[in-house]
Amino acid sequence: VMQCSASLDVLFLLDGSYSIGKGSFERSKHFAGKLCDALDIHPDRVRVGMIQFSSTPHLEFPLDSYLTKQEVKERIKRTVFRGGSTETGQALKYILHKGFPGGRNSSVPEVLIIISDGKSQGSTAVPAMQVKERHITVFAVGIKFPRWEELQVLASEPPERHLLFAGDAEDAANGLYSTLSDPICTATAPGCKVESHPCERRTLETVKELAGSYVCWKGSKQPNAVQASLCPFTRWKRVLIKHPSRCFRTVCPDPCDSQPCQNGGTCVPEGLDRYHCLCLLGYGGDIHCAAKLSLECSVDLLFLMDSSAGVTLEGFLRFKAFLKRFLQAMAGQDSPVSVGVAQYDDDVKVPVELGQHKDALSLMRSIDALSFSGGRTLTGRALQYVAQHGFRSSPVFADVQDDLPRVVVLLTDSKSQDSVAEAAKYAKDQNIFLIGIGSSFMRAELTTVTGNPQQTIVYSDPQDLFNRMPELQRKICSVGNPEGCQAQSLDLAFAVDASSGVGLENFLRLRHFVKSSCLHFIINRDVTQIALVTYGSKAHTVFALDTHTSSSAVLHAIDQVPFLGDSASAGSALVHIHSDVMTVQKGARPGVNKVVVLLSNGGGMQDAAAPAQQLRHNGILVFVVVIGDADRDMLLRVAGSPNYLVHISSYEDLQYYQGLIVERICEEARSPMNLCKPNPCMNQGVCILGPGSYRCQCHGWEGPHCESRVLRGDSPRSPALPPHSHVQWSPRGLQHFSRALQHSKRQ
């Protein structure tokens, strides 16, 4: 972004001596290439040349050889290390004698960039002073562990602005530009400024230290006599020395600093003042990644907006803008919409009746005309009113049987001054689906209105409100469909931690979570079967997959689950589920997706990774939900993937994750299923897959799933199936077999 575009001659003086070594010489070349990025290399602007020095200086290329940045950088890469002694003074005398080879003879400013470790084997002070007297700007760049005192002698004044460290290539390139920007280069870009910052110069120094004392022998004044003594023992040691200093850099405002891209979009800067957004799938309604919405469901939709003094004029206008943007994104300009808008304070008005407008344009005009009233916040009265009067048939749909689902979206940011519970119950009794939207402190009241945290949308700041449009669209359309996995078949087992680490109070919260989650599924033999396991040090089956065939029976059984209260072993629970729950004998249906949801406080997970992997190997998903502090690496080993791990900070927040967890479970229910996982064949039978079906190969047993022992001798046996059964089963036939098997077990 930042380039020096003045007319300028730049000569690199690279140390190629043995004290640098080949490795550091390669780093010097890389650094020289980085510095070129800060120079606008062009025949009429910046020209670059290079000399390598060791015992003698060697011209690598003059300033007029390569006239583009790419050519210069490629030539620098091809420079070969020469080796020799470090004769920096000789190199400077070469420049004093020859000038800048290929340069413009001092008609433009000249810059010398010396890249060295500063360990010259001759004096550099006099030739360095003579170079600077010719008005050549000298930058000294330290490589490896340099001798900074010598580099400081080489550099122009002030040294803190002309000393750079090659180890920080990006920062050093910025430092070069910052020093050249005034007065040599053109002025910095608008909004950019040069600022100083603390930095440090690092080097290795050899120091002498006392290592200890040892016994030695010394002479004596007496003839033919010596005496023992302790003599000091020293050794030389290399020590890393850090010298505090100050460095300079140019800082420019980034056009992405304001985070203009919404909904997870990535901002990509284009220069100093432009950017573009890379949007996630489903977004890109505008340049800032607004939601691309389409209401792919048919509902009667009524927005109820708070216009009371508590929400303030600013809040009312925010809701109005949100409503307009949502409806603009949701409906095309020519699309008929069945939308109404009501607003309330002491009274309730319905300025936009349901279905009054046939097109989005006239609807927008009506919303624009809404005005703030500013009375008391009587949310309960408003809900009662719209439940009674908000969904009258409109002339637009007079010829259509209006049996669409009815949805009220409540937009409020002020606590109600009347009771909302009775009014909300009345609305639900009229088969009205309620969705609540408000800021975070409204969460409890909105949950009271909707009766379900999953029908509540809370936002943290004004911008976050607009980011919630896709979530609102999903919630509106969920009303017309059965919740949960709809008609997808699923075998689902909950494993609930009932140990003393969880405690009775939190165990009751987990129990309530399981109960409310079950409401999202159609529970019967053909759709969803649910099993429940509780565990402490041992696992207990509360009820198996084939125990209950209705929601009411499952909910009643959950209410009776006792707290155990001993130590926790999640591994024993998963082993128990593998061997005693997710089996054909216990009601698991072949060809049906299977999910285990493990609810825990994170304790007793040490032995859970191996059985979890065994379940996954058998085609059973393990979804781990942990509340509280726990080792995330261990949890990931149990879950197998971050996609199947939900880590929640507190039990109070568990309810807000229910929608996410149910959604993930249902995604699994819709995924393709391997009919042989887990193995539907009993008694060591081998499952063999066919196209859309499977068969069981039995040994010593017979029947479609090897469920009957082969009878020997004169005992009668059914002629229907041979000992090695090869009957093929499709998923539809499996469920009838499962019911028949369960009936025979009960008899």
From TrEMBL:
GO cellular component: basement membrane; extracellular space
Source organism of the structure: Nesospiza acunhae
Name of the molecule in the record: von Willebrand factor A domain-containing protein 2
GO biological process assignments: calcium-independent cell-matrix adhesion
Gene3D superfamilies: Laminin, von Willebrand factor, type A domain
Gene name tied to this protein: Vwa2
Location in or out of the cell: Secreted
Primary site of residence: secreted
SMART domains on file: EGF, EGF_CA, VWA
Keyword annotations: Disulfide bond, EGF-like domain, Repeat, Secreted, Signal
UniProt xrefs under InterPro entries: ECM_Assembly_Org, EGF, EGF-like_Ca-bd_dom, EGF-like_CS, VWF_A, vWFA_dom_sf
Domain VWFA: 9-180, 300-476, 491-665
Domain EGF-like: 253-290, 672-707
Subunit text: Forms monomers and multimers.
GO molecular function: calcium ion binding; identical protein binding
